[in-house]
Structure formats: C-alpha cells, structure tokens
Amino acid sequence: MFLFMIPKNKRIAVLHPRVFEVWWAVNMMIYLSYILQNKWNNVALYTTKLNKDNFIGKINFPIEEISFRPKFISYLIIAYKIRNYEIIFAWNSPMHFVGVLSKLLFRSKAKLFWWNHHYPWYHTKKHSSFLLKVKRLLEKFSVKYIDVLIANSLYIKSSLEDIFWENNQIKLLYPRCRDEFYNLTPSKDTKKTKINIFTYSRWVEWKNIKIVFEAFSKLSKKYDFNLIIGWEGKQLDVFKTKYSNNKNIMFLWSLDDKKIIKNLRDADIFLFPSLVDSFGMVVLEAMLAGLPIVWFDFWWVSELVKNWKNGFLVKSDKDFISKLETLLKDEDLRKEFSKNSYHIAVSNFWSGVFEEQLSKVFS
Question: Is residue 147 located within the same domain as residue 217?
C-alpha cells in the first residue's frame, strides 16, 4: 500500500566515499539504487575510490570515480556534478557534507538524505581531538540542510535524535540481506554426530574474537564440536598461528556469499562476540539460516535477538561461555531457537518491510 510513495522519474545521485569492497553497507546502497532505478528513476553513483573488478555484473547503472589530491578537490567536483539532481542519497561520511556543499555552493535544490548505519562515535565525549571537535561543529551546522536522516536501527534512530534533536526528520530503514539469503531454511541435518559452531566478521579489535577462542579452549575439553571462523583481521592472526594444527578449528581464508551460505547451512550455532555493531548483518544472515545466536547484551541487540527465544544475550565473558555450553548440551533448545530465529528474520526484515519503510522515508 505504500509503494506509490517511492518517487518515480527523478534524477537521483547516490554518494559513497569508497566503493571498493562488497561489504554490507555497499550492498545495501546497491540494493536501494536498484529499487529506485526500477521505479524509472535515473540513478547515478559517485565515489572517490572504486574497484571495478569487485562490481562486475553487480551494478547496471552509471558509476563515476572522481579521485584527486587533496581529496577536498574530489568532493567539490562531485558537489558540482550533482547540483542538478532532484534527490541525493549520501551514504558514509563525508558524503553528507558533499551534499550540503552542493546546496550551499552550487544552489542545488535536491532533497538530501543521509544514511547512517553505525553510531556516530565521534560525538562521544571520549573522542575530543581538535579535528573531531571541528567535525562535530560542522555536522551540527550542516544537518540543517539535510532533509532526512535515515537510521538502520531503532538504536541509531534514538542516538541521532539525541545528537541532532533540532532535526525531527529522522526515519527508520532496516537493512535487508541479499536475495540469496532469503532462500535459506532452518532445517538441519539431524544425522550429524558433531555440532558446528560458526562465526564470521571483519575481525578488528572491538569485534572481540578472543572470547570465541576462550570458549573453545574451555568447552572443547568436555564436548566434541567444530569451530568455523570466517574472514580476516589483525586480531585473528595470532589465533591462526596458535590453532593452525587443531583439527576441530577451520579458518576460512576467503569468504564469498556461496561459502557463507554453505557454512550457515552446515552450522548449528552462531556466535557474534562484537561489542560495537549497532545492527549486525551477519546475525540477520544467520537467523535466516535458522541459527541460535549468542551475542553480548546491549539494548540495540534486542532488535534482532530475543533472549531465551532465538538465542542468548549475555552480560560477561563467563556468561558467553556458559550460554554456549547450554546450547551444546540441549538439542531441543537449539531446535526451538532455530525455528524462532527464522520466523523473526522473515517476519521483520523481508523486502516488503524494506519497501514500506522506504516509502515512509519519502513520505
């Protein structure tokens, strides 16, 4: 009923600073661009860094890389090029500033949308360097020229409302997985004799990978299970060395959608030890495969994981290990959580919900 609210026959510019890797935010940007293009809009993507090899066959609308030194020159050129567009979607910082520059310097009349997929950490008190203070001031000024702020979770929406309280156009737009993940089902091979525990992420420091290996170290003495870990990161390197000869741990050196889907289908439990993710797309992908989740308990996590319904929300490292052990011991509980995970995912995060929310963004 809301689809008529999505604009048609408009010139739409989508801005992203770095279209280099096919990460979740970039995939969301591409998916949104396709929806807008399929409504007979003229969509074009502008970036300052592009790896075309990673996007062959993934993008069928114009994409332009503008890369000069200093980067501010690139931003000015993009601001000039988009001056005649009717709608501008700015993805990551500093592209929202580019949209504002287009309005202030080149008299753009476009409706400007700013997508936020993570907490604006530079607004916290502990980040108080001179440059970040300048950025905060510029952002408080610039947000007056941004028509709609888009949040990818209720948590981000609430955070933006606290920071930019004077701007009441803050709308919710939940992210959506790629189409192939919606073909996953929660059915598992009941003839397996060994449980598979799966986790994957970009393993930077705050992703907290160490607790996964602490859990393995303690629980593998009592239970026979496999631990499969996907993707790369500096925090993972030391564990690759330490456990390189352990037959119960598999490191996936590279990971594409096919490998992710295969391992999700083979898995029985999904661990997400991150302390910072404000949504967690990997969790949604795991839920579509019907996996019980173990994640640390922050209030934004409850948008995906319901404690004792489709997984466990834990308070401490000790609790993380304890709840994982509960799932290892109780097959019936795993089956119950599995059904609930799949149901929550397909009920709240399917394409119809996305398009309804997108319509409200434009309303």
Answer: no
Q: Are residues 247 and 231 part of one domain?
A: yes
Among residues 117, 159, 172, which one has the least CA distance to residue 356? Answer: 172
Whole-angstrom distance, CA of residue 39 vs CA of residue 272:
37
User: Which pLDDT tens digit goes with each residue over 172-188?
Assistant: 999 888 888 888 776 66
Under 8 Å CB-to-CB from 114, ≥6 apart: which residues?
90, 96, 99, 143, 146, 148, 149, 150
Question: Rounded CA gap, 267 and 247, in Å?
Answer: 17
Residues 216 and 162 in one domain: no
The answer to whether residue 352 is domain-embedded is no
88, 204: one domain: no
Task: Identify the sign of the CA torsion 307, 311, 313, 314.
Answer: positive
Residues 91 and 169 in one domain: yes
Mean pLDDT value across residues 304-308:
94
Report whether 334 contacts 318 (CB < 8 A): no
CB 11 within 8 A of CB 41: yes
- In CATH, what number is assigned to the domain containing residue 186? 3.40.50.2000
pLDDT grade for 116, boundaries at 50, 70 and 90: very high
pTM: 0.89
Chain segment 24-78, per-residue pLDDT in tens: 788 889 989 999 999 999 999 999 999 888 776 778 889 999 999 999 999 999 9
Give the residue numbers spanning the domain of 125. Answer: 3-173
Q: How far apart are CA 217 and CA 266, in angstroms?
A: 22
